[in-house]
Amino acid sequence: MKTKSGVFTGSYAKHPVTHKLIPIWIADYVLMGFGSGAVMGVPAHDERDLLFAEQFNLPVVSVLNKEGVCINSCCEGFHLDGLSGEEAKQYVINFLEENHLGAAKIAYKLRDWLFSRQRYWGEPIPIIHFEDGSCRPLRDYELPLLPPEIQDYRPEGVGQGPLAKVREWVQVF
């Protein structure tokens, strides 16, 4: 098991409902490519958060029981205890919106199946980059953009994929 590294920033975020101060940590296990690159740790209900909390002696508070019902989740004017996870989620969204503290946001997880490691040399993205730094997408009549036929896909040890060898395809002006 990999040891988690982290450092307390010395800063706190104020919880919008309870007004408690929440310490802000920087950790190496947060995935920058996922969501905003920042997470709210919930160590009682996430294995990675729990390992981090245990390593740095952070509090672990359960907010769901084994049936997925909220516990330990009440404060003045805010009552989640007894709600299912989905009911609590909707309650929180409504509460935050009604009190102008936040709003629901859809995090689209669009993944194009074509963008994969099967094309280890890079996807032919239909954008032309000009010498002056500007760029433009290909026009409809210029599509589809198809990669050229390449006889030799072996890497040459220079950090570039096989498409870089096809100069007339890469440089179009």
From TrEMBL:
<dbReference type="Pfam" id="PF13603">
    <property type="entry name" value="tRNA-synt_1_2"/>
</dbReference>
<comment type="similarity">
    <text>Belongs to the class-I aminoacyl-tRNA synthetase family.</text>
</comment>
<dbReference type="InterPro" id="IPR025709">
    <property type="entry name" value="Leu_tRNA-synth_edit"/>
</dbReference>
<keyword id="KW-0648">Protein biosynthesis</keyword>
<keyword id="KW-0067">ATP-binding</keyword>
<keyword id="KW-0436">Ligase</keyword>
<feature type="domain" description="Leucyl-tRNA synthetase editing">
    <location>
        <begin position="2"/>
        <end position="68"/>
    </location>
</feature>
<keyword id="KW-0030">Aminoacyl-tRNA synthetase</keyword>
<dbReference type="GO" id="GO:0004823">
    <property type="term" value="F:leucine-tRNA ligase activity"/>
</dbReference>
<dbReference type="GO" id="GO:0002161">
    <property type="term" value="F:aminoacyl-tRNA deacylase activity"/>
</dbReference>
<keyword id="KW-0547">Nucleotide-binding</keyword>
<protein>
    <recommendedName>
        <fullName>leucine--tRNA ligase</fullName>
        <ecNumber>6.1.1.4</ecNumber>
    </recommendedName>
</protein>
<dbReference type="GO" id="GO:0005829">
    <property type="term" value="C:cytosol"/>
</dbReference>
<dbReference type="InterPro" id="IPR009008">
    <property type="entry name" value="Val/Leu/Ile-tRNA-synth_edit"/>
</dbReference>
<dbReference type="GO" id="GO:0006429">
    <property type="term" value="P:leucyl-tRNA aminoacylation"/>
</dbReference>
<dbReference type="InterPro" id="IPR002302">
    <property type="entry name" value="Leu-tRNA-ligase"/>
</dbReference>
<dbReference type="GO" id="GO:0005524">
    <property type="term" value="F:ATP binding"/>
</dbReference>
